[in-house]
Amino acid sequence: MSMVNAFTSEDFERLDAADRALIARREKVLGPAYRLFYERPLHLVRGEGVFLYDAAGERYLDAYNNVASLGHCHPRVVEAITRQTAILNTHTRYLHEGIVDYAEALTATFPAGLAQAMFTCTGSEANDLAVRIARYVTGGTGIIATELAYHGLTGAVAEFSPSLGDAVTLGPHVRTVPAPDSYRGAPGEAMERFGRDVAAAIADLKRHGIRPAMLIADSIFSSDGIFAGPEGFLKPAVEAIHAAGGLFVADEVQPGFGRTGEAMWGFERHGVSPDMVTLGKPMGNGYPMAGLVLRPEVIAGFGPNARYFNTFGGNPVAAAAGRAVLDTIREEGLQENALQVGRHLADGLKDLAGRHAAIGDVRGAGLFVGVEIVSDRAEKRADAALTTRIVNGLRDRRVLISAAGPRANVLKIRPPLVFSRENADTLVAALDDVLRAR
């Protein structure tokens, strides 16, 4: 994936001998495709709650990790995985009550109609399966995604993940549309504009003899720069793809599982009805599991004829981890925590914007916040260089975030759902310190 905060060879000589030696070993055995975060990469050895610890015992506040959405090494999830591993781990071709229990609990969190689940190991696999189903159901091949979307790494999914960079070619059946930028355009126009762009993409597919199969969107546009509002702006786009005979796939890998605070699933904030919803990273709080939740009528033909099996997808240990995640979100009130702490965090960041002209915009929902960094507020001129310095400056102050967006100038803040008001205050104070020191 194209990364705006990657370690490069130019940073190598700044590191101490131990880190240089470990990076050299890593590059020799893992090859050139992998990337590291930060100008001074972190050598992490332990995680607990919202904190990560490096090899020297230093503690870092993790304000970026949505994989361990309940916090690192949550004891309830660890216990569930350990207990089930000691009993049985097979696959879905055997009857197992735990798998069915989990599927029932998961689908119960969705609006009526989204009533069946299929399990994979990764979000990439989930989106790959969604493509297969959409093509079977619609008879089309055309796919519409946003201009800097990231939906996964399989061959089929990389073709509509523009954020992977120019070296990864988009498919000839793929059309991209701009994300609804509420900062550089009037927020009230976002709904109409996004719907119009999707309709134009559908028309272009048809002009080239390509039948539309699906529109896929991450409802908070995580890679495109984090655009959470106005609520409802997905409606015209979804109506357009449905009118063209295609399906709408809501990619909830990043905005799902209560992260936006206002709803369990990001798409619910927009009042739309997906045909399929893809899930991933936070589903098992670090245990590799993912899947789809979909309408029974969508899978009715594909299921008996094309079939589906994934050796590890939905195994009993994964089901135990997933159930522990759902139970913890409910019993610890983590969706409400995301809402309340997210508002507190956003208020703190907006207060900073009153003191630092480099902050052009603060936006998001719940514990998913984007902060636009600019060199000129009036012109809304992106400042990618300052963004990189901020991310690395926070790392030096032991607070971890990242950056996103087409101009590489949006601070991406996406902490575990157990983030507290105190944690939020620590982040805001550290950002204030970095901006004062620049």
Automatic annotation (TrEMBL):
Q: Which Pfam families match?
A: Aminotran_3
Record's keyword annotation contains Endoplasmic reticulum: no
Q: Which Gene3D superfamilies match?
A: Aspartate Aminotransferase, domain 1, Type I PLP-dependent aspartate aminotransferase-like (Major domain)
The cofactor(s) it depends on are: pyridoxal 5'-phosphate
Query: Is Transferase set as a keyword in this record?
Result: yes
UniProt GO MF annotations: transaminase activity
Q: Which UniProt keywords apply?
A: Aminotransferase, Pyridoxal phosphate, Transferase
InterPro entries membership: Aminotrans_3, Aminotrans_3_PPA_site, PyrdxlP-dep_Trfase, PyrdxlP-dep_Trfase_major, PyrdxlP-dep_Trfase_small
Show the PANTHER family listed in the entry.
Answer: ALANINE--GLYOXYLATE AMINOTRANSFERASE 2-LIKE, PTHR45688
Q: Which family does it belong to?
A: Belongs to the class-III pyridoxal-phosphate-dependent aminotransferase family.
This chain belongs to the protein called: Aspartate aminotransferase family protein
